[in-house]
Structures are given as C-alpha cells and as structure tokens.
Amino acid sequence: MTTARPDVAGRVRPIVLDAGGIPLSGLLSEPAHTPPRAVVVALHGGGMNSGYFHGQAHPDLSLAVLGASLGYTVLALDRPGYGASAARLPEGQPLADQASTLHGALRDFTSRHASGAGVFLLAHSYGGKLALTAAAHDAGAGLLGLDISGCGHRYAVAPDELPNTRRHGHWTRNWGALRFYPPNTFGSSGALVAPVPAQEQRDSRRWQEVFPDVASRVRVPVRLTFAAYESWWHHDEETLADLTARFTAAPRVLVDRQPDAGHNISLGWAARSYHLRALAFLEDCLARTGREV
Questions:
Q1: CA 277, 134, 291 angle in degrees (round to 5)?
Q2: d(Cα 72, Cα 116) in Å, to the nearest integer?
Q3: pLDDT digit string (tens) for 165-218?
Q4: Which of these, 88, 45, 42, lies nearest to 196 by C-alpha position?
Q5: Phi then psi for 26, rounded to 5 degrees?
Q6: Residues 227, 197: contact at Cβ < 8 Å?
Q7: Rg of the chain over all Cα atoms, to the nearest angstrom
Q8: Taking 50 as the threshold, does the pLDDT of residue 279 lie above it?
Q9: b/e per residue, 262-283, with b = 16+ CB within 10 A?
Q10: How many CB atoms lie within 10 A of CB 206?
Q11: Which of 131, 188, 223, 226 could, after both became Cys, cross-link 56 (CB 3.0–4.6 A)?
Q12: 10 class by beta-carbon count within 10 Å (0-12 exposed, 13-18 middle, 19+ buried)
C-alpha cells in the first residue's frame, strides 16, 4: 500500500482537546521550522472521522501533510459523537451544541499552541453544517473564513435516503465513479468510517429549514465547492444563486466546482487540487484582514 511520504508522515500526530469537559480527539500537523501562518481546522462529514483529511491511499491526498508543508497548522478534529467523545456523546449533539463544543476545543487549542493570524474552518459535508453554525454563533469575530465542500441547502434526495445510524447512504452518492480514486482507496478507508450518531440524522432532516437563518448570520468570507459528480445536493445555477443570496452578511461568497470528483473529494485524485484551492482562499482571507503572518 502506498502511504504518506515518510519524511512528513511522522509530523501528523494524534491530539485530544478539552472542550469544557468533553474530550475531542483528532490529528495535528504543524510546520516543521516556522511559526504557523494560520490554523486550518478541518471538520469531517457524517459517518467519517478526522482521518478523512489524512488519506493514506496516495501521498497527495493528505490535507494535514500539504497544509503543514505550506506553513499552516492543520487540526483535523473528530466532531462531537465521534472518536474520543463517542462514549460520552453516543447520540452526538445538536448542531448548536456541536458549535459550542467546537469553540471550547479551539479555546483549549489556541491557549497551548501558536495560531498565527487565526483560525480558518475547512469542512466537508455534515462538517460544513457545523462550520456554518459555528461561524453564525461566533458572529465571525474569531474566524478568518470558511471553505466547505459537499454541503448545500437543498437536498437532491428524499428524507428517507439520508444517512442514518444503520447506513451511510447509497454508495455511489458518497463516492461516484471508481476512476476518481487511487487504487486501494477502499482498502485503506475502512479506518475512516464511523457510525452516524442519531442526532445527526435528526438534524439533517431539518437543515433545509434552519439554513437561511444560519447563513444570514455568517460574517466571514465563504467558499463552497461542489464536486462535478455531487449527487446529495442540488447544485444547478438557479439553486446556487439562491444559496449564495442567503449569505446576506458575509463579505464575500464564492461557489466553485471541482472537476473529476465525487462527493468525497478529499479521498480522490482531486484532493490535492481542492486542498490547494482551499488554501489559496485562506490566503485571500489573510490578505483581506491585513494581518501579518
């Protein structure tokens, strides 16, 4: 099996943060020789874990490795109900509570680690719902921006097709065509899969209702990426125009499409391209703030 490059793989290490008494586990990667330009906090989707951002099927997949090589700290967290918090939160948490827990974990992290110009949320699928909710609850005061893939506001599936505690949804909706992924992706991705907490299923059904209010409260730049073969969400031009119009307080909203990719972009051949585009958006956010790094 092809794994991450040996000279950098050792820098990606496990971490556990204290989020007000709730342990949040994850993976941490820091620049080797310089202070970080910023902290990229990566939030996985439903039924996955933080390893989604450190894919092992090919060296080019890992956001953790790429980000650190470009001068960023990358903190990929297991969301509440996953990893170290699963025993404490067997049903997960409602999105608003997840946002509070996330902010608590970030306070713990930044009290003990250099954070450069600040925190940037990079999220996938259900993690995108958390990123938006966290930004809405934070009023944008402590975040540089959001980069979200695989998360929209109008489902392209019926409610009973959404992932639940017994299944992660139809295989092709999550992955798309086999050609999008390196060999051994599905052999190495078993460790990335986790049960979907029951609360996530309940919140997923309500997302279309709560999204307008959440989006209207986001006050930082937002970039949304849809894979060319995304099939969980509607992403036609009319839908995307309505989606971006909901961000009435955000200073900038971009929508991008990732060619030759299915829903799980960060595990496919398109991962490096997507991650570089996301980090370029972070650079735009740094330039906007004028913060020295």
A1: 55
A2: 8
A3: 555 555 567 777 788 899 888 777 778 989 999 999 899 889 999 999 999 999
A4: 45
A5: 175, -165
A6: no
A7: 17
A8: yes
A9: bbbbbbbbbbbbbbebbbebbe
A10: 11
A11: 188
A12: exposed
**β 143-149/253-258 pair status:** unpaired
Place of tokens 């540089």: 144
| CA pseudo-torsion sign 106, 110, 113, 115 | positive
Residue recorded with tokens 């009435």: 248
Strand partners, 256: 225
Stated length of the chain? 293
What is the 3-class SS of 156-179, one letter each residue?
CCCHHHCCCCCCCCCHHHHHCCHH
The tokens describing 41, both together, are 């906090």
pLDDT in tens, 84-94: 999 999 999 99
Residue 37 has pLDDT above 80, yes or no: yes
Q: Are strands 22-29 and 13-19 parallel, antiparallel or unpaired?
A: antiparallel
